[in-house]
Amino acid sequence: MLSTEQLARYHADGYLVIPAFKDAAAIAALRQRALAIVDAFNPAEGSAIFTTQNQAAASDDWFLGSDTTVRCFFEEAAFAADGSLKQAKALSINKIGHAMHDLDPVFEQFSRDPRLAAIAADIGLADARVWQSQYIFKQPGIGGEVRWHQDATFFDTTPVSVTTFWFALEAASVDNGCLWVEPGGHRGPLRERFVRDGQRVFMEPLDAMAWPDNSVAIPLAAQAGDLVLFHGLLPHYSAPNTSPVSRHAYTLHATAGTSSYSKGNWIQRGAGLPVRGFA
Ligand code: FE2
Fold this sequence. Notes:
Elements: H1 4-13, E1 15-18, H2 24-40, H3 55-58, H4 61-64, E2 70-74, E3 93-98, H5 100-103, H6 105-111, H7 114-122, E4 128-136, E5 146-149, E6 157-158, E7 163-168, E8 179-181, E9 192-197, E10 200-205, E11 218-220, E12 227-231, E13 236-238, E14 249-256, E15 260-261
Antiparallel strand pairs: 1-12, 2-3, 3-4, 4-14, 5-13, 6-15, 7-12, 7-14, 8-11, 8-13, 9-10
The chain binds fe (ii) ion.
């Protein structure tokens, strides 16, 4: 699936952009389904706000229970001082997570793509296990910042294996909050680990290495349909979306089945909903 040159670039930079991976029909189906999920969402069920600014404090039962369900999370800036939504519900959701790839037929079809299995094999992700799906809205005007982090923080395995499959569902640019990465930064250490202990979660510092200076980051502009593949240790962030244009994306996180998956990771799967691969 990947050329020798693409593989070399992935291993050197820690990421790879694969243009036009998904076609317009697949993207339209996923977007339509996401909007239907939001439409059916009753905010009275759960009012969790998703933020990476202080994720441990923001995490609650609504978040922790989304490991094996499909739930909507509000943007931090979605609410007025009186607690009402500033704009329509469909323009107030930060993301949907985290088990659509296993529970929703439309998401499942998008996610169980034999080409993804081939890519995983190409990059050495043996016996891939897909733990999480997220539909990220990056809403116009209020799409929040996601600070520098490494995705291996949330999917600790020995050895490190988590790989991110990031699908652009709309054009992403510097203006509407695209990804920024530190090329080659995946050779650095894992700085922190997000640990779950029952219904409690906390961030455990692992390495004092500073986050990169923003001046070394490069923006990953993408077109709808592009797939961005990146290594779990690659430092990345995205800026707030202050533009009038949304930046929808869909992500999958997969680890190697041959690695040891930490019991402290916040997503665990049992016999009721076993973790599966891309096939
Ligand atoms: Fe990330």
